[in-house]
Design brief:
mainly alpha, 7 helices, 82% helix, elongated
Amino acid sequence: MLKTILTYGLIAGLIAGVPLTIFTLTIDGDDMMQWGMLVGYGLMLLAFTTIFIAIKQRRDGPCGGVIRFWPAFALGLGISFVAGILYVIAWEIGQALSGSDFAATYANALIAQQKAAGVNGAALKRYAAEMEEFRRSYADPLFRLPMTFAEIFPVGVLVSLVAAALLRNPRFLPAVR
């Protein structure tokens, strides 16, 4: 099972991570803020189709057409973990190569949204101070790395839950023999 986790985790990590790095290197801050979340989560979902494929292949092959929920879920979590690590590495590479200050761009965009919504005075100053604290915190790898991992891993957990629940039923997409 470890080989399956590593293989499919690597594939999922590359599907999510390589475009993330390219996106980080080629898109400016404003476009990244506008499209980054949509593209990022779309790529994560695409990447995590590997969970479904891995569980089905394990069910139909070594498990003889039957897999219980917990082993299937564990397989999905393992793949999600490996993919998450690669995603974090890809983000760090993109940030290092681009030289951009994501935290400042993100904070400035959120402050601009607050201004556009009519927030001003003391409330805006408070919000700007919170964003400055975020920017400082984000510079610390012990804050940034887990935060980046937390972007992708919950998506993998959700896909693992759905795939394990569906594929534990041997009549769902039965093996073709």
